[in-house]
Design a protein that fits this description.
The complex is a heterodimer of chains A (379) and B (523). Chain A has 379 residues and is mainly alpha-helical. Chain A has one domain. Chain A is built from 13 helices and 6 strands. In chain A, the strands form 3 sheets. In chain A, strands 1-2 form a two-stranded antiparallel sheet. In chain A, strands 3-4 form a two-stranded antiparallel sheet. The longest helix of chain A is centred in the N-terminal third of the chain and has 36 residues. Chain B has 523 residues and is mostly helical. Chain B has a domain of 350 residues. Chain B is built from 18 helices and 6 strands. In chain B, the strands form 3 sheets. Chain B has a two-stranded antiparallel sheet. In chain B, a hairpin with a 4-residue loop joins strand 3 and strand 4. Classes of the chains: A mainly alpha (379), B mainly alpha (523). At the A-B interface, helix 3, helix 4, helix 5, strand 2 and helix 12 of A face helix 2, helix 3, strand 2 and helix 18 of B. Chain B: It holds the Pfam family Cyt_bd_oxida_I.
Chain lengths: 379, 523
């Protein structure tokens, strides 16, 4: 059961679980921050919106940090190659993500309207930039990144920040923004009192939902009709030691759709991506906020899973060296480390989920402008 | 590798790590002090303790957010700036970081939101439990990070695999129970407790000097005096020295701290002061206390403390042996099944890292002459004057802290801690000292490990990512600007909150006569 092949598969799934956990929790924080200056106009409206994420953002944020740590532990090659390769993009994300919690926390500590307004736009940047860059990064992963490994397995990246932006990767970036804005507006709708903010959130949600569907379809068209994708030409050894130099790849147009013909069940993921967004739109229209939030969540799960399943077994293909691509079978830690980490995850992830649910339950209920005015603990 | 890239990578890591650790110690210590204060509230049911807990909790919150945010940089910086390190040791080093996230950081971060926002949504005891879980989470966090850092100082339980060109885990238990990690954990969290105690002591002293909020201030001070005395004793007595006899690099650290250029007969004396001279390898004007160093470092009177020259000779032998391992690895790359080369590798693999030191001077270590090997062996000596002075300042502050808290404790026991003005002034001006000592402690640990990123395994100059100087300057400038602005904001918000004081608009404590402000300020 826990042989090297299965451990690698389990960790490939767990990496997806952590990324989806991040998108579902911190994702709505990003969406809310990106929407802040536009859905809320007055100061008390803005404080109300900020306090919808106030009590839980710290925990949500940890999905990203734990995801980073887990990739380090289970997929050291991926951690080393991707973050050093996407160096400046990563800096942008980190800077924006640092700005965001600081903004939540510090914005309302002073009465000065100019101070507050500056933070509101900092929060907008702190929400929009990571959402966009994450999508652009995923687009680059799909189209292959310009890196190569030498015989010591040191990685060299031969591209710059601007090279990351191509029509396809920009489309992925916009899809990511649309997906998270939809999720964020669904969260605002569920968490604020009925009133102007609630109504605006629903309008933004409708636009973002339609955009998600169109952009996701656009992504599919790119993958189907342009030269994107790679395939492995050497024999795969799922039990082999992790050394990417032993795998040879070649570019292969349409490769990212092949898995769906071999394993038709995988179609669930893209279907969920579309259906979830449609469900969210229905939810918004019928003013059923739980339905809208469930829809945006399902759509997020579907879209992220689609990326992983389309590329399997690739994790990060190289666009310039056909012996450097990282796959599930050549980029993992040892079976021992993967096994230990599975054990740790099986023990702690359910505990994390339990107290996270409890924390959400304690803080449940709509935030009102009245409460913002009277509760001294609010941001 | 471009030496400029290495220096810039080190500069960035030093800046971001030292900055991150401005916030961590206060989080570590203040979280437990909040538990103590809130426990008193729950047990005595006196509202003033609720006010005290909430007041320090507000300062905790301002500090916590920057600790979390800057910790994010650290989590990814190994990948962004030290990608060869990440590949080379990720199989071992990544696990503690991931476990930290799952086991500790989730707990701390999830509970901290409930702690700030849940005062009216939870029972008293329920809220206390949440506060305790925050403290538990932050301290467990430190444990896992120090297991990772301890492994860099003493890489046990792992070996090099030529097939994957990296270190791989052999015994995870050894990584967990690494004695250096244990010593570092106790030392680091104790330092955090001292830091928080001085903070609470100093801010309370400020109120007492101003004659404001006496009820809150004198009670907070009593908590800080007791907690601080215990912690400052622990930080000095359970210092880091216990691990200094374990590995060649740890011995080197000790020798550099003591500026011990040669092995002295046992028991070695402790050099109090002197001027280390790195060209003649002597220490001028040294003032020595006999026996003390031998006692501290070896816990005995008959064991020697090895000097730097002798450790360099040992390094020279290990480089020579390591070149054989390096040669075997190069041949195994081409022909993994070669049994003879595999045997040569196995015989010399523990010195492989030493051969890599030669790469600073020559592309292929196998071509190094004996003269070059002898010269390279001196690379294992870290920056001696920096080590020597950092340690002395840190240790001096450590002893000063014991004196400060002992005084505070005596005064508190005599119930004179709120009126002894010279002491209140001293406490106020002592606030920055623990931060100085803590940052110097990290400089000692990390500079002392040089030239290694992983002791004896991977030199720092090979560990960095292959980035351009331009990219590094961009991020160094960016982080400095961002962190600089945040530091200014943080300090101003802290000062504003301290100035506002522990009053709240709905549940003010009964102020003592003469201390009621004209208009109670809103929180």
């Amino acid at each position: 059961m826990f042989d090297y092949e299965n451990l690698r598969l389990i960790w490939w799934v767990l990496m997806g679980v952590l990324l989806i956990g991040f998108a579902l929790t911190d994702g709505y924080d990003l969406g809310v921050a990106a929407l802040l200056p536009w859905v809320a106009k007055t100061d008390s409206e803005r404080r109300m919106v900020i306090n919808t994420v106030g009590p839980n953002w710290e925990g949500n944020f940890v999905w990203f940090i734990t995801g980073g740590g887990a990739i380090f532990a289970a997929w050291p090659f991926v951690y080393a190659v991707s973050f050093s390769g996407f160096y400046l993009a990563m800096f942008l994300v980190l800077a924006a993500l640092i700005l965001r919690p600081v903004g939540f926390k510090y914005r309302s500590k002073r009465e000065d309207p100019a101070w507050r307004s500056r933070w509101d736009y900092a929060l907008f940047v702190g929400g929009l930039v990571p959402a966009l860059v994450f999508g652009v990064a995923v687009g680059n992963v799909l189209s292959g990144a310009p890196f190569r490994l030498d015989s010591d397995l040191r990685s060299f990246y031969e591209g710059g920040l601007l090279g990351l932006f191509t029509p396809f990767t920009l489309l992925c970036g916009l899809l990511s923004v649309a997906m998270l804005v939809l999720h964020g507006s669904a969260w605002i709708a569920i968490k604020v009192e009925h009133g102007p903010v609630h109504a605006r959130a629903k309008r933004f949600g409708t636009v973002a939902g339609i955009a998600s569907i169109l952009l996701f379809a656009g992504g599919w068209a790119f993958v189907a009709f342009t030269k994107i994708g790679y395939r492995i030409v050497t024999t795969i050894d799922p039990f082999g030691q992790s050394n990417p130099l032993r795998t040879t790849s070649e570019p292969f147009a349409g490769a990212w759709l092949v898995n769906y013909t071999i394993h038709p069940w995988m179609m669930i993921a893209p279907v969920l991506g579309f259906a979830g967004a449609a469900l969210a739109l229905v939810g918004i229209r019928r003013s059923s906020e739980p339905l809208a939030f469930a829809g945006s969540s399902l759509s997020t799960v579907g879209i992220i899973s689609t990326v992983g399943l389309s590329m399997f077994p690739y994790i990060l293909p190289s666009s310039i060296d056909m012996h450097s691509s990282l796959t599930v079978w050549n980029a993992s830690s040892t079976a021992k480390t993967l096994g230990i980490m599975v054990f740790v995850t099986v023990v702690f992830l359910p505990i994390v989920l339990a107290y996270t649910s409890w924390a959400f339950k304690v803080m449940w209920g709509r935030v009102t402008t009245e409460e913002v005015r009277t509760n001294p603990d609010f941001y | 590798m471009d030496p400029g890239v290495i220096d810039l990578s080190r500069l960035q890591f030093a800046l971001t790590a030292l900055y991150h650790f401005l916030f961590v110690p206060l989080t570590l210590g203040l979280s437990f002090m909040l538990v103590i204060m809130e426990s008193v509230y729950v047990m005595t049911n006196r509202p003033i303790w609720r006010v005290i807990t909430r007041f320090w909790g507000r300062l905790f919150a301002i500090n916590f957010v920057l600790g979390v945010s800057t910790g994010l940089t650290m989590e990814f910086e190994f990948g962004t700036n030290w990608s060869y390190f990440s590949h080379y040791v990720g199989d071992i080093f990544g696990a503690p970081l991931a476990i930290e996230g799952l086991m500790a950081f989730f707990l701390e971060a999830t509970m901290v939101g409930v702690m700030f926002f849940g005062w009216n949504r939870l029972s008293k005891l329920g809220h206390l439990v949440v506060t305790f879980l925050v403290a538990l989470g932050t301290n467990l966090s430190a444990l896992w990070i120090l297991i990772a850092n301890g492994w860099m100082q003493n890489p046990v339980g792992a070996q090099f695999n030529p097939e994957t060109m990296r270190m791989e885990v052999a015994d995870f238990g050894q990584v967990l129970f690494n004695p250096i990690a244990q010593a570092k954990f106790v030392h680091t969290v104790s330092a955090g407790y001292v830091c928080a105690s001085v903070f609470v002591l100093g801010v309370s002293a400020f109120y007492l000097l101003k004659g404001k909020y006496r009820g809150v201030a004198k009670r907070s001070m009593a908590v800080a005096a007791a907690f601080g005395l215990l912690s400052s004793l622990s930080v000095v007595v359970l210092g880091d020295e216990s691990g200094y006899a374990l590995t060649d690099n740890q011995k080197m650290k000790l020798a550099a701290i003591e500026s011990a250029w040669h092995t002295a007969p046992a028991p070695a004396g402790l050099t109090l002061f002197g001027l280390p001279d790195t060209t003649t390898h002597t220490t001028r004007y040294a003032v020595e206390v006999p026996w003390v160093l031998g006692l501290i470092a070896t816990r005995s009177l008959d064991k020697e403390v090895t000097g730097m020259s002798e450790l360099v000779l040992k390094a020279q032998e290990r480089i020579t042996s390591g070149v054989i391992a390096y040669d075997a690895v190069q041949k195994l790359k081409v022909d993994p099944a070669n049994v003879a080369e595999r045997a040569r590798f196995e015989a010399h693999k523990r010195d492989l890292g030493y051969a890599l030191l030669l790469k600073a001077h020559v592309a292929d270590p196998r071509t190094a002459s004996p003269a070059l090997i002898a010269k390279t062996a001196w690379d294992v000596v870290p920056n001696v004057p920096l080590m020597f002075w950092s340690f002395r300042i840190m240790a001096f502050i450590g002893f000063y802290m014991i004196a400060l808290f002992a005084t505070a404790f005596v005064l508190a026991s005599l119930r004179r801690h709120d009126s002894t003005r010279w002491f209140l002034r001293l406490a106020l001006f002592s606030i920055p000292l623990p931060w100085v000592a803590i940052e110097l402690g990290w400089i000692l640990a990390e500079i002392g490990r040089q030239p290694w990123a992983i002791e004896g395994v991977l030199p720092t100059f090979l560990a960095a990512s292959s980035l351009s100087r331009g990219a590094l300057w961009t991020t160094i400038f960016g982080f400095t600007a961002l962190y600089g602005v945040l530091a200014v904001i943080e300090v101003r918000l802290m000062l504003t909150s301290i100035k506002k004081g522990p009053f709240e608009h709905h549940d003010d404590p009964q102020p003592e006569p003469g201390t009621l402000p004209a208009t109670p300020l809103a929180a």
